Amino acid sequence: MTQETLFYRFGIALVIGILVGLQREHSYDVTDKPREKTAAGVRTFALLGLAGCTAAFIAELLHTPWAYITLVLSLGVLIAIGYFISAWRGEPGMTTEVAAMLVIFIGSLAYWGEMALAVALGVVTMALLSLKLELHRVAKRITHDDVLATLKFAIITAIILPVLPNETFGPPPFDVLNPYKIWLMVVLISGISFLGYMLIKIIGSNKGITLAGVVGGLASSTATTLSFAQRSRSNPQLARQFALAITLAWTIMFARILVTVGIVYRPLLTVVWIPLTAAAAAGLSYGVYLHLTPHAIDTGNVTVSNPFELRPAMTFGLMYAIILLVARAAVFYYGNTGLYISSILSGLADVDAITLSVTELSRRGGLEMGTASRAIVLAAMSNTAVKGGIVLSSGSPSLRRAFLPGFLLILSVGLSVAFLL
User: Fold this and answer.
1) Are the C-beta atoms of 153 and 308 separated by less than 8 Å?
2) Which of 64, 97, 130 is the last residue of a domain?
3) How many domains does the chain have?
4) Is residue 266 packed enough to be buried (19+ CB in 10 Å), middle (13-18) or exposed (0-12)?
5) pTM, to two decimals
């Protein structure tokens, strides 16, 4: 190892230690704790980073890992003593002590040449330390049901998915039924919806109707549409804001479809993005018009329930398998017309299942990409029509007037572009 490389690695360890130490001192200033009670500051963390790097260097010089283990354990004992002293003073928190040990290991990684990992760990450490208040606020918003739902999602992803057979059974049209791939689609859609729900929990839907519409579109554009349509009856003066939020939620739905297609079969994305982007652009343009129109301000919440439960996930998996089989049979026996009809009917209930089914058929080579693209757009427009019906039937008269032009614009643009290509 050259002298320049050696000094570079020790320098990385030193810089990371200094940055973490600065954060720790700043945290004490923010919480108004006296400076003399700071367990470890910028100098201590800088030295700990150098100590970890030095321990790795000495172990290499002596050609024994025991030298490294002995030195790190000695530092660990000193940190433990500091923790017990702090606990005796009535400050039992372990955050600084754990960060100190982590900086030692980061310093060691820097010496071993794992620069990317060392820097990444340093950044993550600083982020976790700096976001203390924000993380505590998020933890307070998470309910026991949310924790259980997260556990269930982990179970279907890490336990159920790996044990399913990755093969098909039977002749056409049954050759599309692959248990592993069917459940993989369940994980994909559940994950996207769960992400949107957690964003609502973290950000909070009371930041404004517009933000609630954007984030709600990730969790469930149908639920968001229904929520705002119902609220418009008691708050008719907010009709334009509600129409804007609904339009944005639909725009996010089109983006969700594109992401789903891109994950499953990227070549199809090069075709389907044009009509869906056109529909999204139409909705976004009308949203800009609504935004520029004077409107009242509201800070109420949009109600979106946790989208992940085992029974709905299994129901979606069954729905996806049935629609996949029906779509394959429709193409096999009736050609493109049968597929288009099944897409429209499936989109009335759920756009995700038919999107995944058609994309999978296209990926397997059983469907031309142009036909698959039109089928997905038909499903999306069918689903959009259903949500439009929800607004027209349950929304206030002022919401219907503000919403209708954008609704017709999205439908006409999406269908026109899809069948003109």
Assistant:
1) yes
2) 130
3) 2
4) exposed
5) 0.57
